[in-house]
Specification:
The chain is mostly helical. The chain is 62% helix and 0% strand. It is built from 14 helices and no strands. Helix 2 crosses helix 7, helix 7 crosses helix 9 and helix 8 runs antiparallel to helix 9. The longest helix has 23 residues. It binds 2-acetamido-2-deoxy-beta-D-glucopyranose (7 copies). One 2-acetamido-2-deoxy-beta-D-glucopyranose binds next to loops. Pfam families: DUF19 (PF01579). Keywords: Signal.
Length: 268
């Protein structure tokens, strides 16, 4: 990936204010609170679910955690804004937790926290994936499982207004690759790829399993997939080809991302 693209991705998941909200200043302040609360640095925030995606829970959190809320924003927002929020606290709370009248209005304050959650979890996933790909140490299974979990959190936080651009798709694809990596399907492919000796010649087709050539890999899991299924079953047993169709399709869909995982210390 070139540096420019990388820069864009970091920017995407870092940006504080992607949209200019209505009533910008107060909501900017509340949004900043979301970012700080995700950092979870203050004791007072530890037991309060300010960021819950469930409106009832969030409502309750902001009611019981009012003191904590103001304690947190006093260092990040201007005084007049804090006074304004303080005066209209219940009203602000309602606009944030209430389902928008127009669900396709992505500027509705309701999406403020949804977006904050999405951005943060996307950034978490992106950084873990980057670290994994570029690692000089071998990852243990539990670390890979953790990346899966963070990825799942990212997928869960996707909502109707979250941007779906190439950076988002890249993180999604790489998350899919991480999921694939934990399947018997990939375990088998890796086993065959790691085998230094050439495979016996098969009648249906003669693949070069060590290849990194896109067109060959594509063929292996599309037009010639049934032959490949047969070979994998023969080498790794039945369990490796359970869900073969699904895994093959996912492999092909994420082929570009998968290829970048073929190298390094944590290869597929
Ligand atoms: C308080 O904020 C609301 C919404 O941001 C705005 O409409 C209102 O004018 C502000 N009031 C004061 C006194 O600043
Ligand atoms: C959070 O809750 C746990 C258990 O409910 C309690 O032990 C802990 O003291 C609480 N922490 C704070 C900072 O309130
Ligand atoms: C809902 O919001 C979208 C996006 O801002 C807008 O295009 C659409 O006209 C709105 N619908 C209604 C009924 O206001
Ligand atoms: C990968 O890691 C090496 C050192 O471990 C570093 O020099 C290099 O810049 C990293 N590449 C990326 C794309 O982060
Ligand atoms: C998963 O990764 C995150 C981010 O690096 C880390 O904060 C967390 O402790 C990890 N969880 C486990 C169970 O390893
Ligand atoms: C994601 O959502 C699923 C289904 O709602 C849930 O079972 C899972 O625990 C969630 N995972 C994370 C990490 O939020
Ligand atoms: C994969 O990368 C190649 C060359 O970099 C590109 O032409 C192709 O469109 C990409 N495929 C997908 C599915 O992104």
């Amino acid at each position: 990936m070139n540096l420019f693209r990388e820069f864009l991705i970091v920017l995407l998941f870092n940006m504080a204010t992607p949209y200019s909200w209505h009533n910008q200043d107060s909501y900017y302040c509340i949004r900043s609170f979301c970012t700080v609360a995700l950092g979870d640095t203050r004791d007072c925030q530890k037991n309060i679910s300010f960021l819950s995606s469930d409106p009832k829970t969030q409502q309750k959190a902001f009611t019981t955690g009012k003191t904590c809320f103001f304690d947190t924003i006093k260092s990040i927002c201007d005084k007049p804004i804090i006074e304004n929020i303080s005066k209209n606290y219940d009203k602000y709370l309602e606009t944030i937790t209430k389902k928008p009248e127009n669900v396709s209005d992505c500027f509705d304050p309701h999406y403020l926290f949804a977006q904050c959650r999405w951005r943060q979890s996307g950034r978490d996933a992106y950084l873990l994936l980057k670290n994994y790909k570029n690692s000089t140490k071998k990852f243990e299974a539990k670390d890979v499982a953790n990346i899966s979990k963070v990825c799942q959190g990212f997928k869960n936080s996707t909502y109707s207004c979250s941007p779906h651009d190439s950076s988002t798709r890249m993180v999604e694809d790489e998350c899919d690759v991480i999921d694939l990596k934990q399947t018997p399907f990939i375990a088998c492919l890796s086993k065959i790829r790691a085998n230094k000796e050439a495979l016996p010649k098969y009648k249906c087709v003669n693949f070069d399993f060590q290849t990194k050539k896109v067109s060959t890999l594509m063929q292996m899991f599309t037009t010639k997939k049934w032959c490949n299924k047969w070979i994998m079953k023969k080498h790794c047993g039945k369990s490796s080809v359970a869900d073969f169709k699904k895994h093959a399709a996912l492999f092909v869909k994420t082929l570009n991302s998968t290829l970048s995982y073929f190298t390094g210390y944590n290869p597929i």
